[in-house]
Design goal:
It is built from three helices and eleven strands. By secondary structure, it is mainly beta. The chain has one domain: CheA-289, Domain 4 (OB fold (Dihydrolipoamide Acetyltransferase, E2P)). The strands form two sheets. Strands 8-1-2-11-10-9 form a six-stranded mixed sheet. It has a five-stranded mixed sheet with strand order 3-6-7-5-4. The radius of gyration is 20 Å and the shape is globular.
């Protein structure tokens, strides 16, 4: 038939190339203790050095307080405390990742930022199932890159959980 396009036509090659590029995802890799985590780079607004926030009363321990970021009051969440890590140390490597999550600006304290990593679908594995009483709903998978393994998190799901104590009032308009 004259109208059939062969499997190796230039249009199909371009379409396949574009599709595979769309499937790759970029993650900001960061450290919490000895583990490496990854979050969608599109949620990251900026990375700042750690500065002591203003403490707020009656908030969970993992919410360290707030900082004024160019006129926006930003809650600062220490993920090491949130994840019950035994050692929480503030040093020259401690940074705050400023996120834009569900229309709100938040700061996330981590031990350090590694790099921006591009992962293809075949480099992302499903997270293992755990007991029902362990909440891993925010883990979207495990990214493998050579000898590295990143725990990939859905930062929207993690930061919008009711236990985070962040209400709709803190949204930017």
């Amino acid at each position: 038939m004259e109208n059939e396009i062969s499997a190796t036509s230039p249009q199909e090659v371009r379409a396949t190339t574009n599709l595979s590029q769309q499937e790759t995802r970029e993650f900001l890799a960061f450290k919490l203790g000895s583990e490496e985590y990854g979050i969608d780079i599109l949620k990251v607004q900026e990375i700042r050095g750690y500065e002591k926030p203003t403490r707020m009363a009656n908030v969970p321990e993992f919410i360290k307080g707030v900082v004024n970021l160019r006129g926006i009051i930003v809650p600062i969440i220490d993920m090491r405390i949130k994840f019950n890590m035994t050692t929480v140390e503030y040093n020259e490597f401690t940074v705050v990742i400023i996120l834009n999550v569900s229309g709100r600006v938040l700061g996330m304290v981590v031990d350090g930022v590694s790099d921006v990593t591009t992962l293809t679908p075949d480099q992302i594995r499903n997270a293992p199932d755990f007991a029902e009483n362990i909440d891993t709903s925010y883990v979207i998978g495990l990214g493998t890159l050579d000898e590295r393994m990143l725990i990939l998190m859905d930062i929207e799901r993690l930061m919008s959980g009711s236990e985070m104590g962040l209400s709709e009032k803190s949204q930017i308009h």
